[in-house]
Amino acid sequence: MKKSFAFQMMIFIAWIVFMPISIYTVYRAFPPPTDIDWSLLIGFTVLGLLTSTYPVVINGTPFFLLQWVSLAVFLKFGLYIEIIVFQISIIPFLYRLKLTRQSLYRIPWNSMMFFLISFFSGYIYLKFGGNIHSLDHLHIIGYGLLYIVINIIANQVFLQLSALLLGNKLPLFTIDDAWDYVIGCFALPMGLSLYILGEYAGVISIVLLGIPFYMMTQLLQLYSISSKINKELSEAAHFGHQLADQLESEETLDLFMERIPKMVEIDGLYMIDRRKQTGSLSVLRAYENGQEILKNVTHKELSESLLKHTLLTEEKVIFSKRSEWLLPSRNYLLPDSQSVLVLPLSRNQYMEGVLLLTSKKKNFFKEYQVKMLELICSYFAVSLEKARYVEKTRHSSERCGLTGLYNYRYFDEYLTKMMQDLKNHNISNLSLIMLDIDYFKRINDSYGHQSGNDILCGIADTLRREIGGQGTLARYGGEEFVILLPNYSKDAALNIAEHLRQTIEAQPFEISPDLMENVNHLVVRVTASIGVSSAFEDTDEGTTLLRNADHAMYIGAKQQGRNRVAGF
């Protein structure tokens, strides 16, 4: 949550006032020993800095194992020195946060929070009878355990209070909290070992325990990375199968846009389309800060941006920080973007588009993530091609090749479905309009079949324009068209039919006559006879609904002089 400038300044002022007073108070109440082993103290401080610099990353969350060093420092030098060393040791931690200018207030905020955690851990240890610089093993183990437990509890409590005060929501217990407890169990023996070895071996204890500790953290790191890679590769394979199962191109795009941000935790995703005929670029889909958005970017802005190298070479490009890709021209990415990954989307040796992913973090995209995304993009390109092929095949099987309207086969199945919806009370009414072009054979005989086709296409365009989303259109056969109107009563359907009749009668149609010499274009006018039937008013069967509308059209309209509307 973005904080106001006044709030941030208040945090900095509170830190400037709080920290000196608090540290001085601790110094007076719990003074450091007079005989400080400076070489050991410096060694502990360096070890704390190294521990903070190389955290253990588990499930993408860094854990800074500073408790073992802070425990050893506390047992050796007391509360005041431990607070100072801990404040120094968290400097790498604060640096790794990669804070933006708007979130710099978290530096003093975290500093005060860590001070309080150190203070409560040490204060309770001392108040319950714990001694500093003791070699009584049973004594230091028991009180050392108390110190670690209080440290973990204080950390959890202050995290919850911090989230509450900053307006963020945190669950009471997460898997990261469980790892905190596991790390606490590790910190106790390591901290005690470091303290005891420091008592007997001095500064050499830093080397004897520091090197094994570093090796252990690296092994944990490798294990965590390996587990994460295996998990993400498994998710990628599963995602690839999900993409392959999609039979609609829009569904394939929707699934891709939904899953990729979750798999890679990016801040921005832009799918850029490249038209095969012209090579022009446009943003097909865009995702920013957790939601899909509309992104209007011109071809020029896209072609002259950081996509330029990929458009020329069809190769992927990875930018680790903003200064590597930022151009003086208008930037269409998120204003705080840092890392950028540009991946070509290719099919049949032609680049059909570009996938652009961004993160607010520097050096965000790891090598294995890039390979995984390349694999997913391959799945995506093939799945999208298959979905488009299925759509094309289905379109040709469901549509009239001349007019583009649904054909009789599709309409018959759809009518059956809608009748069932009516019986299940999913819709309130169902009306059907059947329309036949008057004297259509005369047009074919006078001007040729191509002219008849021109009229059929013109009627189809008119019906499509006038009906819109009110109903479903189909070419029933020859010069007959049908319109299915859910939730329309018979009277409402008759009104629509009359409007269509008048529109067709008033509209001129341009044809290209085959049977007339030296005439390329001719304007003719046509009329239509229309029949209307409704369910359940006239019937409760789909085939009968069609038959009734057909009967009304021929008996009530054509036999009564044509260019009429008749209800069954």
* Uncertain stretches: none
Query: Which structural category fits the helices and strands?
Result: alpha+beta
Shape label: elongated
Alpha carbon gyration radius: 38 Å
Q: Main beta sheet: strand number and arrangement?
A: 6 strands, antiparallel
**Span from first to last CA?**
65 Å
Proportion of strand residues:
5-15%
Number of helices: 18
Strand arrangement across the biggest beta sheet: 5-4-3-8-7-6
Taking all residues together, what is the mean pLDDT?
84
For the secondary structure, the number of strands is 15
Assign a percent range to the helix content: 55-70%
Provide the domain count: 3
Key words describing this protein structure:
5-stranded mixed β-sheet, alpha+beta, 568 residues, 3 domains, Beta-Lactamase, 6-stranded antiparallel β-sheet, 57% helix, Alpha-Beta Plaits
Could you give the topology of this structure?
Layout: H1 5-29, H2 38-53, E1 56-58, E2 61-63, H3 67-77, H4 79-89, H5 91-96, H6 106-127, H7 137-166, H8 175-201, H9 204-245, H10 249-264, E3 268-274, E4 281-288, E5 291-293, H11 299-303, H12 308-313, E6 317-319, E7 339-347, E8 350-359, H13 367-398, H14 408-423, E9 430-437, H15 440-447, H16 449-467, E10 472-477, E11 480-486, H17 490-506, E12 509-511, E13 522-524, E14 528-535, H18 542-558, E15 565-567
Parallel strand pairs: 14-15
Antiparallel strand pairs: 1-2, 3-4, 3-8, 4-5, 6-7, 7-8, 9-11, 9-14, 10-11, 12-13
Helix pairs in contact: 1-6, 2-3, 2-4, 3-4, 3-8, 4-6, 6-7, 7-8, 8-9, 9-10, 9-13, 10-13, 15-16, 16-17
